[in-house]
Amino acid sequence: MLSVILALFLPCVGMSAVFLIYLFVLWYVARREINALARSVKPQTKLGLSESDLKKLPTVTGKDLVLGTDCAVCLDEIRDEDAATMVPGCNHGFHKECAEMWLMRSGECPLCRAKIQPPPQDLASSSENSPV
Prior knowledge:
The chain is mainly alpha-helical and about 130 residues long. The chain is built from four helices and three strands, in the order ααβββαα. This is RING-type domain-containing protein. Pfam families: zf-RING_2 (PF13639). One of its GO terms (molecular function) is zinc ion binding.
């Protein structure tokens, strides 16, 4: 009778021990992976433009746009009387509200993905006041 109990009991104990070791190894590896990922993640920086940078962008009307009259953000036409923002560098134009919404989040042109560098405010104001 004892030999039957030992024949059934010992394999169960052995398999349980192997299973517990397997679970411990999985836990250890997963913890190391999570710690490695936490160390390698860079802090998220703000991608969009600030309020002051948005104010520096040129504002025109729809009739003054150079490259087309379709807003790439809302996909609607920019009418002649609509306020529009023209992106410096690539000269793409968008509705003023659409451009502000997009550029606060992204900081790049919705059409060509060019990085937007607003013109410095002091240069724009100094060129107007400089004697010729």
